[in-house]
Amino acid sequence: MNFNLTNVHYDQNSRHKFGQLNESLFIQKLLNHLSTIMGNSFFDFEFFVFSHQGSSHLPSSIETTTVKKKVLLFFSDELGTDPQPYAHHYFAIFKSYIGTRSKAHNVFPLPLGYVKDVPHLPLIPINDRPINVFFRGNLNSNRLGFYRSLSKWRFFIPSRLVKYRRVLNSFLLNFQDDFSKYFPDSVIIFNNGFKTGYTPQEYGKVLSESKIVLCPNGFTTSESFRHFESMRAGCIIISEKLPETEFYSQSPIIEIKDWKEGLLKAKELLSDPSTMEALHKDTLTWWENKCSEIATAKYIHSKLLRLDRLCSKGSIM
User: Fold this and answer.
1) What average pLDDT does range 27-36 have in this prediction?
2) Would you say 176 and 184 are in contact if contact means Cβ atoms under 8 Å apart?
């Protein structure tokens, strides 16, 4: 992979080729912005992009020797494993899905970005959008509570998918996978697998036409591409609890304790166009200032500057 930047490298221990990564377009744009923001100082650093999952596979750049300051941008690890054991090999590590888990002074959370094939379409004013509430995604074990909240048969559905998860999953989807009538003019459909519903192009179009997007937990974490794609599209986001990082704390995302509360909140919003308009504008502003490619580049730059100041003062070694 050629980033067109001589000091940026794709770590050879990554699980997939760079072009196969969902985040590849976000990463490319982020790095281009970072090089512009930092100017000549950008080349004082050696940047390594790494994509893998879990703790059994380590970045090969751990062993790379250079006179420059090594920075690791670690994507795709939905397990959120802490890189603290090898953080001393880098000047800084920025890692998606890490939340607030790491206590290392030089490990920082990183936005997930968006799926590269999901288009960013022209904005439609929030109250002109034809779809009231939107969700389409996999029925995983962490979303059973979400499914139960939508179903009129909720009291017959177990609260957890444990031993017979796949059997129960198939049964539920065969019984009912479409809850679009729960709200008028809405799309709420469960799939049996990741990316098995709409094509990315169809998904992006429906997202751009949606007022409210429901963001239930993924397999292992509450963070998902859906949050960032919805933010970029100016949708109102209702989500389960998110990590207390700079990308979510005090954001316009509506965080809920359960989906009974979440569905009631969606119903309230649909009857309050002025509040939806305000949330729509606030969400777009939050995307631009906190989570977009250029905002993420500014965030990384600020953390690198802070580490440089601490090092020059001898506060950290």
Assistant:
1) 97
2) no
